[in-house]
């Protein structure tokens, strides 16, 4: 484990994970780094990363697969072509941990070699070969709860008890990790807001964040610009910053240690206020 990985697993203060989408069809952050075809424009990516760091990002989450509802799957070759050059470029030029939003075993292996510091898997290492690849990488992993697959996850999500179901799912994935030699000290948990959940499910799950935190793992949460914010405010994605930051601070007050966000400087300011008051 590198020093970078070590310092990044120190959660005495909450951390800002900044979203860096390298998909040609990303809708949530407006910007695309694609000019021509297959590969993102690296100089533009690096400029964006520099800005993210100056705004207060602690961790950059690079994603090459669109996980928005209804999105078509990409091949592992395509995903690798999007993500690997970006991870290499960031890791070699900046002293910031890079997390990679991927479920693909070959991508896990390649980005680990390229200097990534964490694997962020919305499928919680359920793809065949993903557990073994993550174990071999030696990297920390974020295990996220999702009901079904992005293509159909919002069609008719149903739970017996959303909080109990999410906890049981995550604990089963923790056990699967431990069985392949990924130690508990390398595991981060995430309830997966918006992934196969109605507004009502998201709200109940949000209120039970302290219970999830009580499992003893660092908890990551992504609420930034999501439909739960939009549904509460009745606002489109480009008008959800304030609501996202407000909900993010409430998550931190409930024990969340990593916030996955689009609006970095606004989140950094809000966290400073929170810390100044709470000491
Ligand atoms: C507007 C903006 C509407 C963004 C929807 C979205 C999470 C995640 C995503 C999360 C972890 C997204 C990759 C979905 N969300 N990883 N990834 N936790 N660990 N949707 O909540 O941002 S992508």
How would you describe this structure in keywords?
279 residues, alpha/beta, TIM Barrel, 8-stranded parallel beta sheet
What does this structure look like?
The protein is an alpha/beta fold and 279 residues long. It has one domain (14-223, 248-262): Dihydropteroate synthase-like (TIM Barrel), CATH 3.20.20. 44% of the residues lie in helices and 12% in strands. It has 11 helices and 8 strands. It has helices spanning 3-8, 42-55, 76-93, 105-113, 130-137, 162-179, 199-207, 209-213, 227-233, 241-253, 264-278; strands at residues 15-21, 59-63, 98-101, 118-121, 141-144, 187-190, 220-221, 258-261. An 8-stranded parallel sheet has the order 6-5-4-3-2-1-8-7. Strand 2, helix 3 and strand 3 (98-101) form a beta-alpha-beta unit. Helix 2 (42-55) crosses helix 3 and helix 10 packs parallel to helix 11. The mean pLDDT is 93. Bound molecules: ligand 8Y4. The site of ligand 8Y4 has 18 residues, from strand 5.
Q: Could you write a compact summary of the structure shown?
A:
Helices cover 44% and strands 12% of the residues. It contains eleven helices and eight strands. The protein has an eight-stranded parallel sheet.
Helix content: 40-55%
User: Briefly, what CATH class?
Assistant: Alpha Beta
Give me the count of strands.
Answer: 8
- Broad structural category: alpha/beta
pLDDT average, as an integer?
93
For the record, give the distance between the C-alpha atoms at the N and C termini, rounded to a whole number.
Answer: 31 Å
Estimate nothing, just give the exact number of structural domains. Answer: 1
According to CATH, the fold-level topology is TIM Barrel
Main sheet specs:
8 strands, parallel
């Amino acid at each position: 484990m590198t020093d970078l990985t070590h310092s990044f697993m120190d959660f005495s203060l909450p951390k800002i994970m900044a979203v860096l989408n390298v998909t040609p069809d990303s809708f949530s952050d407006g910007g695309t780094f694609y000019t021509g075809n297959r590969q993102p424009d690296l100089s533009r990516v690096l400029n964006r990363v520099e800005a993210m760091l100056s705004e207060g990002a602690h961790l950059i989450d690079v994603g090459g697969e669109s996980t928005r509802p209804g999105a078509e799957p990409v091949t592992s070759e395509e995903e690798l072509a999007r993500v690997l050059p970006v991870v290499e470029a960031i890791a070699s030029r900046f002293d910031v941990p890079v997390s990679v939003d991927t479920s693909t075993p070959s991508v896990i292996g390649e980005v680990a070699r390229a200097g990534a510091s964490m694997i962020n898997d919305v499928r919680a290492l359920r793809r065949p070969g993903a557990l073994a690849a993550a174990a071999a990488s030696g990297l920390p992993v974020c295990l996220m709860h999702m009901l079904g697959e992005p293509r159909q996850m919002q069609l008719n999500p149903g739970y017996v008890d959303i909080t109990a179901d999410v906890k049981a799912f995550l604990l089963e994935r923790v056990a699967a990790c431990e069985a392949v030699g990924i130690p508990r000290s390398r595991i981060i948990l995430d309830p997966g807001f918006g992934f196969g959940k109605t507004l009502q499910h998201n709200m109940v799950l949000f209120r039970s964040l302290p219970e999830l935190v009580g499992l003893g793992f660092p908890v990551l949460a992504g609420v930034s610009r999501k439909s739960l914010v939009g549904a509460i405010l009745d606002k489109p994605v480009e008008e959800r910053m304030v609501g996202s930051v407000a909900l993010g601070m409430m998550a931190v007050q409930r024990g969340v240690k990593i916030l996955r966000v689009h609006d970095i400087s606004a989140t950094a300011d809000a966290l400073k206020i929170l810390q100044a008051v709470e000491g």
